[in-house]
């Protein structure tokens, strides 16, 4: 490795890429804009390549910059994990894992997994983030998460990501008890009521769209697009809205009878749920312990492989 390359060079490059602005990156790293520009120029001179194109609209990666970005992110992430690990030596030592969980698995699996780990690996400390597929995969690619648990996304979102399938999950359409559609359930009628619909960047949206197209159902005109579990539960219980969401998000409410699943054939929406990590990284003890707890939890819940 060229000894002229310093951590500050990698930090500057990654932060400029993340913020898409020299000015915002400089503010984030508490540097002046000229200092940030100089640091980037030093890195480009050392590498003998232009990493970013500057323009009025901000900055954009060149082909060389896109290639180098993943390695820079991985290097900073590895250093961060090493520094975190040094803090863990001594009597308070703990294993640490940063987990991203899509809403369906956050609601259905994570409480059970936490109970399993409390028994089998009490030294493990998890940091859990939730959000959309695009958001969590972005954090994973930037080295801010160690694993992501959820549905496999579209091929373009999975570049550089390894995927280990755990089980299959369908999308469900749910309503409050006593909803008018329950008197005559018909998929073609869902547009008669407000619909809570998966947003564009969600992993389940292509599956839902495929179902509607196959059944000749138009996109509901009166819809709110979100995967927020809190909003979906409150809105569906208190109105005539029809909520389209992964089964795992509402499995408990369906079992308790506070929400009712509409009796439609949703087989076309079935998709794989699994564990995602950066393909270039080696496995770790933390990931193995987490994966084993997942497998035990899935077996206990009887989820289909």
UniProtKB/TrEMBL annotation:
UniProt keyword terms in alphabetical order: DNA-binding, Transcription, Transcription regulation
Q: Where is the HTH lysR-type domain?
A: 5-62
- Reading the lineage from the top rank, the first entry is Bacteria
Q: Which InterPro entries match?
A: HTH-type_LysR_regulators, LysR_HTH_N, LysR_subst-bd, TF_PcaQ, WH-like_DNA-bd_sf, WH_DNA-bd_sf
The reply to whether DNA-binding figures as a keyword in the UniProt entry is yes
Pfam families listed in its UniProt record: HTH_1 (PF00126), LysR_substrate (PF03466)
Supply the PANTHER family for this chain: HTH-TYPE TRANSCRIPTIONAL REGULATOR YBHD, NITROGEN ASSIMILATION TRANSCRIPTIONAL ACTIVATOR-RELATED
Q: Which NCBIfam families match?
A: TF_pcaQ
Similarity annotation: Belongs to the LysR transcriptional regulatory family.
**Listed name of the protein:** Pca operon transcription factor PcaQ
List the source organism.
Answer: Paracoccus mangrovi
Q: Which gene encodes it?
A: pcaQ
């Amino acid at each position: 490795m060229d000894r002229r390359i310093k951590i500050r060079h990698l930090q500057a490059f990654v932060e400029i890429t993340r913020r898409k602005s020299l000015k915002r990156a400089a503010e984030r790293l508490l540097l002046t804009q000229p200092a940030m520009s100089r640091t980037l120029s030093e890195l480009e001179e050392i590498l003998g390549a232009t990493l970013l194109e500057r323009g009025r609209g901000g900055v954009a990666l060149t082909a060389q910059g896109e290639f180098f970005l993943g390695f820079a992110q991985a290097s900073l992430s590895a250093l961060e994990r090493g520094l975190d690990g040094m803090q863990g030596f001594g009597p308070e030592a703990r294993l640490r894992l940063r987990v991203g969980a899509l809403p369906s698995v956050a609601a259905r699996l994570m409480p059970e997994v936490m109970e399993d780990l409390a028994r089998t690996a009490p030294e493990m400390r998890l940091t859990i983030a939730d959000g959309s597929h695009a958001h969590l995969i972005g954090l994973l690619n930037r080295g801010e998460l160690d694993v992501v648990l959820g549905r496999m996304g579209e091929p373009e979102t999975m570049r550089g990501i390894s995927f280990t399938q755990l089980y299959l999950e369908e999308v469900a359409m749910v309503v409050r008890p006593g909803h008018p559609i329950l008197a005559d359930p018909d998929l073609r009628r869902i547009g008669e009521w407000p619909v809570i619909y998966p947003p564009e960047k969600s992993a389940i949206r292509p599956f839902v769209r495929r179902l509607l197209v196959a059944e000749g159902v138009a996109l509901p005109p009166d819809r709110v697009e979100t995967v927020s579990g809190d909003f979906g539960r409150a809105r569906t219980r208190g109105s005539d809205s029809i909520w389209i969401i992964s089964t795992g998000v509402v499995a408990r409410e369906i079992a308790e009878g506070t929400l009712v699943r509409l009796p439609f054939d949703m087989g076309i929406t079935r998709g794989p749920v699994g564990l995602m990590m950066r393909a270039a990284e080696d496995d770790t003890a933390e990931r193995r312990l987490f994966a084993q707890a997942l497998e035990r939890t899935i077996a206990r819940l009887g989820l289909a492989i």
